[in-house]
Amino acid sequence: MRTEDLNYDLPEAAIAQTPVTPRDSAKLLVDLGPEAQPQDAVVADLADFLLPSDLLILNETRVLPARVAVLRSGGGAGEVLLLEPLEDEDEGWWEALCRPSRKMRAGEQVRAAVGSLKFEIGEDLGQGRRKVRPIHQGNLLQELERSGEAPLPPYIHERLSDQERYQTVFSHRPASAAAPTAGLHITAELLAKIAEKGVQINTVELVVGLDTFRPVTAENLEDHQIHSEWYQVPAETWEQVKTAQATGRRVVAVGTTSVRALESAAASSQLQGRTRLFITPGFQFEVVDVLMTNFHLPRSSLLAMIQAFIGPSWRDLYSTALQRDYRFLSFGDAMLLQRGPLLQRGPSLKGDHEAQA
User: How much of the chain is in helix, strand and coil states, percent to nearest 5?
Assistant: First the structure.
C-alpha cells in the first residue's frame, strides 16, 4: 500500500490545542457500519451505544512526567526527555531525547532547573537520542514529579495548565511518554453509567512511546519500521475476552493502544512482552469488534490501523468530521467505529514479538 493513500488535508485550525471541560463533553462521531448514517453525539452518550453484553477494554497506563528542563555545567539550558529504561542495563541507564544533544558530552552531568535531580549523559544513540543515567536520592518517580512534566505532542503549542488533563482518570502505573488519548474523554461518572448498564470493564497496559506521533516517511507502508512498545494483558482480562468471544459478545476497545495490546496478545499467544505488531489494511482482527478512537495524523501508523478496521470509508468520515467542526488529534474529539465486514485479506505486517507469558 502506498503511504500517500493515508494522506489527507488537515487544517491547522482543526488541531485541538486544549482539552474540553468536562472531559466527556467532547464530540463523538458514531459509525456503526455501512447500513447506518454517521451520527453526531458526545462522549457522555457512550453508554447509549453499548450493549449490556459488551466487554469494554481500557489502557490504564499513565504518562511519566519525563520532560525535564536542565542546566548544563558550563552554562546554558537544555532538556532531557526520558523515554524508557534500557534493557539489560543494571546501572539505571535510560534512553532519552536530549537538547541540545550535539553539545552534550559523554560523561557530562546536567542538573534539573527545579529540584535536586541530575543526569549523567552517556553515548549518542542517534537521532537526538542519548543514554542517560538519572542521579537521584530516593524514589525516581517522586523526583520526576518535582522536576519534570508530561511531554505533550509536538503539534500542541499551548502549555497545559493542569497536568492531570493529559492523564486518564483510570491511569495507574507511570511509564508512558504519551497518553492513550481516546481514554482522556472518559470520566468516573461515565464509567459508572456504563457499568450500571451491565457492561463488563477490564484493563490492559500498553506503554505508549513518542514514536506514535511520527509520520510514516517510507513511500510504501510495508517498508516502514514500526516502533516497539511494551504491553501486558492481565490474565483476568484475557479470560473475559475469551468468554466474550465464546458467547458472541462484542469486545469494545478504547483507543488504538488497547487494540495493539489485545491483538498482540492474540497474535503472539503471549500476555506480556514487547510488540512490533503493525496493523495495516489486510490485517485480520482476532479480538476487537468496536473501537473508540480520536482522529489521527495524516500518513500515520494509527491511520493505517483505522483503514484496516473499517476500510477506506475513513476518508468520508474524516471529511464529515472536518465539515462539522470536529477537533482533531490528542485533545480533539472522538469516533466510535464498528469493525467493517471482512475485507480482501492481504499479508498482515506483523513484526516480531519479544514476549513472555
Answer: 30, 30, 45
Residue pair 333/326 in contact (Cβ under 8 Å)? The answer is yes
State the distance between the two ends of the chain, measured CA to CA, in whole angstroms: 33
One-character DSSP codes across 127-147: TTEEEEEEE-SS-HHHHHHHH
67-149, CATH topology level: Thrombin, subunit H (2.40.10)
pTM > 0.85: yes or no: yes
Specify the pLDDT at position 68: 98
Q: Picking from 54-68, 72-86, 190-204, which range would have the lowest pLDDT averaged per residue?
A: 72-86
Q: Do domains 3-63+163-356 and 67-149 have the same CATH topology?
A: no
Chain-centroid distance, C-alpha 299: 16
Q: CATH number of the domain at 3-63+163-356, please?
A: 3.40.1780.10
Quick: pLDDT tens for 3-27: 999 999 999 999 999 999 999 999 9
> Which residue, 148, 84, 87, 85, is CA-closest to 118?
148
- What number is the average pLDDT over the span 305-327? 97
- Return the ∠ at Cα 165 (arms to 160 and 168), rounded to 5°: 150
- Residues facing 79 on adjacent strands: 69, 99
| pLDDT at res. 277 | 95
Residue with cell 470493564: 201
* Cis bond before residue 154 (omega within 30° of 0): no
The residue ranges of every structural domain in the chain are 3-63+163-356, 67-149
